[in-house]
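ok so for the tutorial part 2 we go from a plain amino acid sequence to predicted structure tokens. step 1 is just haveing the sequence, like this:
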Amino acid sequence: MRYEAFDPGKAFALAQRLEIHHIPKHGSWLNTAEIELSALTRQCLDRRIDDLAVLNTELAAWQQHQQ
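step 2 — the prediction. this is what the tokens look like for a chain of 67 residues:
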């Protein structure tokens, strides 16, 4: 197939801006979830929180800080 949307120089420049990450075919969503939960545990849940309201407040603050 030929793609003629860009001239060769422009196509090469655009291709150089891409960063390709290979992820496993199976379990990739699970790996992502495990990484996110690990970060949450290290950064936010590194202590015992007995009150659900405090937990929700802490989680909301952590989530806001991540964005």
